[in-house]
Amino acid sequence: MKRLLAFFVVLSVTAPAVRGQDAAARASLERWIDRIRESHDIDAISVAVVKGDAVVWSGGFGREDAAAGIPASPSSIYRVGSISKLYTDIALMQLVEEGKVDLDAPLEKALPDFHAKSGWEKKVTLRQIMAHRAGIVREPPVGHYFDPERPSVAATVASLAETELIHEPGSKFKYSNAGITIVGRVVEVLRGKPFEEAIAESLLIPLGTPKATFARSPDRLPGQVVAKMWTLDGRDFPAPTFSMGIGPAGDLRASAVDLARFAICLMNGGATESGRILPKSRIEEMWTPKFDKNGARVDVGIGFFVSKLDGRRRVGHGGAVYGCATELMILPDDRLAVAVATSKDCANGVATRIAETILRTELAHRAGEPVPELSVSQPVGAALARSVAGSFGGETGVELVASGSRLFVFPRAGGARSELRRDGNGASFVVDDEQAFGARYRIEGDRLLIGDRPPLVRSVDPPPPSLPEAWRPLLGEYGWDHNVLNILEKDGKLQALIEWFFLYPLTDAGNGRFRFPTFGLYSDEDVTFERNDAGKVTAVIAAGVRFPRRPIDGEDGRTFRITPLRPIEELRGEAAKAKPPEERGEFLASDLVDLTTLDSTIHLDIRYATDNNFLGVPVYSSARAFLQRPAAEALLRAHWSLARQGYGLLIHDGYRPWSVTKIFYDATPQASRGFVADPSTGSRHNRGCAVDLSLYDMKTGRPVEMVGGYDEFSPRAYPDYLGGTTAQRRLRSLLRTAMEAEGFVVIPNEWWHFDYRDWRRYRIGNEPFESIKGKAGAQP
């Protein structure tokens, strides 16, 4: 990707002139932010920095709309996610100040039609809701985070009558989008107008941010960034733009500059150019952390999270919503603040890191101290990643997983996967990905050191347990294209991968009920499965949200099929007359080796010589497999390595004539062409340096069961797809490790397809199998 220069501007004419030292530091920050943006594949980042009463500098990095070539700016519009909650809470506090509502009265007094089931006598109050201590479910049944139907705030809140409080009111912190939506409903009831109109009049316009809006538009606004979703297995796609029923909790659209002006108002005790939105005493009340019933401090006040940055009081909130991640960070006693917005889903680790680094740089300048080091970590590299991968600390520890040149850590207890990147020399790493930054890991022999924690000792995972038959029908994908819930088995537990990134082990609560753990996004909430009259699972009800089952062609064990765009015989005739693309340059002479001559324990399953393939008709005239000699010899070494572990290679395809590649491409619908090669550039199969393969069990002679089937055009085909069972994923990893150790690389969207490192040195071939002399392979 071509490097993009940052769009940088000083906004406030009242700001002091930028001294040379400050200018140099800001230029350095600008370059660093753009490097961070590029290293995490984020299209757009915008920042705005506040000192006292002014936005002193701001910047836009990358592109607001990459396809249109529009650069990001400080005024680019983002969905700011849960920062919206602060605005909603302040709109409610304005009503408190006006004497129209009591924070500590039972909620029913302000909202008589609110009903939620409760097993406790204690009543829910608005103060509890705004401090996320009311025991309310995270999401409402209607209008929840996943719901694209755009119900009203009133309908969303009304649906909570179907829910039951998870905890006794006031007893425990539980973050709730549903709760802050209730707050928004109180605002619109007491103001007598729709929430988005009420908050615009009482807050957004007085703040001097008229373009900031809670308006329920299904489309992008002018100047709004094109945001991006992504998955753990390597896919990305445009973020949806639908408005949510939980709009008061997460649907404000605003720029970094808008958020900065909000911060100025807060630091000025609620004062704006047009008047005061709230007394300073009320704002300080919102910034005061609460204490639980045991006297322990809870780092949340009324709406605001309250913590320390290097010993200084810090208040603010982060946000994550469909393709955008944001951070508003305020040091009120130092009169410093920063707003950061990004256009990549859940990139909160990046936003928080940028915000903290900017504030530390400003504080260092103020104190005349050295500014923080601005570094960018590097990928681990394939060899080092493979060498350190494994389990540490057993069932309560972590698992390090190698994926090509990258290294990931999975906590055994559940939560988000994190990427480890190089931090210094040797086996020293730092957590650095879209979602998190900072935790330090170091390998010393068989010990893993994580920060100041006691060392974790390398452990050997036991053989994966047999999957309980009762769980098998539950495994699979549920939900919508824009947000998929995956139910899988990992480490002998049924687990839920929810909101794309968060993996939680489920506890069996009996009678077909499971429960999320006591931590995380959906703490203590239930998971149940819905079945039709035939007993087939049709949906999962996770934390009160119904996720419909997503059918995947091939998950029933049958071979994946497409409907060819045209008859295969017609395409075959066209391909026979066509010619491969011309290539210039020096190439090695073709030396294709028949793989059956390498070792009799290498087995063939050439699906394209049968009708058992994705087209449903034979395309090869004989069941044979060839590779260029160096690739064939490397394949044999991988086979021997696997044989020592009881598995053999099962070959599905090797060298493929170019004419067959053209048939595949011309037959495949556009939506699935990411799984077939473009004949205009040729395939690595055409060069004799790609192989499609799986494993078989040498004891039984039977193919092993992988997460997805061969030639399955679905997300299950991705090598890092986190679904299925532990046994399936371990076998997929075993195959990949053996092949990559011998110079092969798996392609990003097919676990079975491996390219040999020298593929560029051979020409595209179109020779039919029958013309290839059956050259035997020598022992490597």
Brief account:
22% of the residues lie in helices and 25% in strands. It has 780 residues and is α+β, with helices and mostly antiparallel strands.
What key phrases describe this protein's structure?
780 residues, alpha+beta, 41 strands, globular
List the helices and strands and how they pair.
Blueprint: E1 7-9, H1 20-39, E2 44-51, E3 54-65, E4 70-71, E5 78-79, H2 84-97, H3 107-110, H4 126-130, H5 153-158, H6 177-191, H7 195-204, E6 228-230, E7 236-238, H8 247-250, E8 253-254, H9 256-267, E9 271-272, E10 275-276, H10 280-286, E11 290-291, E12 297-298, E13 305-309, E14 312-321, E15 324-331, E16 336-342, H11 348-367, H12 382-388, E17 390-392, E18 398-403, E19 406-411, E20 415-416, E21 418-422, E22 428-432, E23 437-444, E24 447-450, E25 456-459, E26 476-480, E27 483-490, E28 493-498, E29 502-505, E30 507-510, E31 513-515, E32 526-531, E33 537-542, E34 545-548, H13 568-577, E35 592-594, E36 603-604, E37 626-628, H14 629-643, E38 647-653, H15 658-667, E39 690-697, H16 726-740, E40 744-747, E41 750-756
Parallel strand pairs: 36-38
Antiparallel strand pairs: 1-3, 2-3, 2-16, 3-4, 5-8, 6-7, 9-10, 11-12, 13-14, 14-15, 15-16, 17-18, 17-25, 18-19, 19-21, 20-29, 21-22, 22-23, 23-24, 24-25, 26-27, 27-28, 28-29, 30-31, 31-32, 32-33, 33-34, 35-37, 38-39, 39-41, 40-41
Helix pairs in contact: 1-11, 2-6, 2-7, 6-7, 13-15, 14-16
